[in-house]
Amino acid sequence: MIGEREISGFEALFETMRPSRSPWWVIGPAAAALYGIDVGDLERIDVVVAPGDARALEGRIDCHKERRHGTALLRARTTLATHLGAMPVIFHSWLEARFGGEWRPLKIETRKPIEVGEALIPVPARDELAAMLAAYGTGNERALAKALN
Asked: Is 4-139 in CATH node 3.30.460.40?
């Protein structure tokens, strides 16, 4: 369920991303929650941004680079961590997925805005999000993929 804590984070994210020059998406459990899936306590909001927008965020908001963020199947070359509203937020750029034995850029093909409080938050289409979570997610995220289908 999305409560006041989460709404404050999504609204602050929306305002933070207004100057962005490229499309961006909320992914992972936060995106599943926006589709009405019960994700339990939402730990953070994961956001995919273009490299140029990541560089701009570094100069515009209070954030820090994380050394590594990812799994054996999904990683980001640049990861920025911050708090927006009452939520931890992780920005990922240069998102890559493992295909066989090599890393390739992960391209999100769809973009659906979902209204949250006073914000419009873009997420991948439900079926694309489910496919991403099923292919690259942790055990809990794979369960969310099933709930999305």
From this structure: yes
pLDDT along the chain (149 residues), means of 10: 95 98 98 97 97 96 85 90 98 91 93 98 98 89 95
The encoded tokens of residue 84 equal 């927006």
Contact 65, 94 (CB under 8 A): no
Residue 69, both tokens: 């963020």
Burial 62-94 (b: 16+ CB within 10 A, else e): ebeeeeebbeeebbbbbbbebebbebebbbbbb
Angstrom distances, CA of residue 92 to CA of 3, 25, 142: 24, 10, 20
- Residue listed under structure tokens 């493992």: 98
